[in-house]
């Protein structure tokens, strides 16, 4: 299967050029396009009720499997 070059270029819009465009090179893609986040945790949302319920189920499952309390 051949993908037209214009489709590939559109898919790469917004990324910095690098060796990753010529071959499968995940390391180069990450190194070339990675920007560290230097902010704080204020962008994070509080834990949802469904996440808390799921986590409680996970803890119960761990307790059942191991025979001990994971906390």
TrEMBL record:
Coiled coil: none
Gene Ontology, cellular component aspect: cytosol
InterPro entries from the UniProt entry: Auton_GlycylRad_Cofactor (IPR050244)
Single GO MF descriptor: formate C-acetyltransferase activity
Protein name stated in the entry: Formate acetyltransferase 1
Gene3D superfamilies reported for this sequence: 3.20.70.20
Superkingdom of the source species: Bacteria
Species of the source: Photobacterium damsela subsp. piscicida
């Amino acid at each position: 299967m051949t993908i037209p070059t214009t489709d590939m270029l559109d898919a790469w819009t917004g990324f910095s050029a690098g060796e990753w465009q010529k071959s499968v090179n995940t390391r180069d893609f990450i190194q070339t396009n990675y920007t560290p986040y230097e902010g704080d945790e204020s962008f994070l949302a509080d834990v949802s009720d469904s996440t808390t319920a799921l986590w409680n189920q996970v803890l119960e499952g761990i307790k059942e499997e191991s025979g001990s309390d994971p906390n």
